[in-house]
Amino acid sequence: MQTNADDSELAKFSALAHRWWDPQSEFRPLHEINPLRLDWIDAASPISGKAVIDIGCGGGILAESMAQRGAKVTGIDLSDKALAVARLHALDSGVSVDYQKIAAETIAAERPGQFEVVSCMEMLEHVPDPASTVRACADLAAPGASVYFSTINRNAKAYLMAIIGAEYLLRMLPRGTHEYQRFIKPAELTRFARDAGLDVVELIGMHYNPLDKRYSLGAGTDVNYLMRCVKHA
């Protein structure tokens, strides 16, 4: 099976892996949005005691926070450095997360239907074939399970805010973090989900206010957005 990964993308994030848990680093936005996305997931699919898998877990910010709420978490990624950081931080935090270096498509073939919650956050815009990742997420989900995605819309506003604004003007992210042509419109992600046997049940925007420097969830999916799906029972 050919791995659905971009070596340049893996190298980009591996080079920054040692800074993953520094809340003032390039990963500051992930630290700041994590409580929002964690609460959103936990409210819709209470995760305590559930088998959860986080696809593209990186250094483990979301995976670890879900484990702290009682979930039985598996975190997968293809970056050795990011996974090493994730494992060390979990030891320091005293939480249990099963971190594995494995592709989503591979573990989906090995463990189909074994997870009650599947999350794939801020990853789809970094892989060559996002539809393949969506199918893998669907295959991993048990019937009736919830599958969560977050990514970036593809339009002029998203280009101005997610690349020009965030990377060049506000310098919230390193230049080159995102490539505009890899952004995904909600209609496209909806099609990927439905083709994979998922029902889309919620679509919500993630917004940043540069005045008070705070994030919030709400109506409007012009730039960053999150999608909740349910696997066909």
Automatic annotation (TrEMBL):
Pathway(s) the chain acts in: Cofactor biosynthesis; ubiquinone biosynthesis
Q: Which GO terms describe its biological process?
A: methylation
Q: GO molecular function of the protein, one example?
A: 3-demethylubiquinol 3-O-methyltransferase activity
UniProt xrefs under Pfam families: Methyltransf_23
UniProt key word ATP-binding: no
Specify the superkingdom.
Bacteria
EC number(s) recorded for this UniProt protein: 2.1.1.222, 2.1.1.64
Q: Which UniProt keywords apply?
A: Methyltransferase, S-adenosyl-L-methionine, Transferase, Ubiquinone biosynthesis
First-level EC class: transferase
What reaction does this enzyme carry out catalytically? a 3-demethylubiquinol + S-adenosyl-L-methionine = a ubiquinol + S-adenosyl-L-homocysteine + H(+); a 3-(all-trans-polyprenyl)benzene-1,2-diol + S-adenosyl-L-methionine = a 2-methoxy-6-(all-trans-polyprenyl)phenol + S-adenosyl-L-homocysteine + H(+)
Per UniProt, where does S-adenosyl-L-methionine bind?
37, 56, 77, 121
NCBIfam families named among the record's database cross-references: UbiG
Family (UniProt): Belongs to the methyltransferase superfamily. UbiG/COQ3 family.
Q: What does this protein do?
A: O-methyltransferase that catalyzes the 2 O-methylation steps in the ubiquinone biosynthetic pathway.
Name assigned to this protein? Ubiquinone biosynthesis O-methyltransferase
Organism placement in taxonomy: Bacteria, Pseudomonadati, Pseudomonadota, Betaproteobacteria, Rhodocyclales
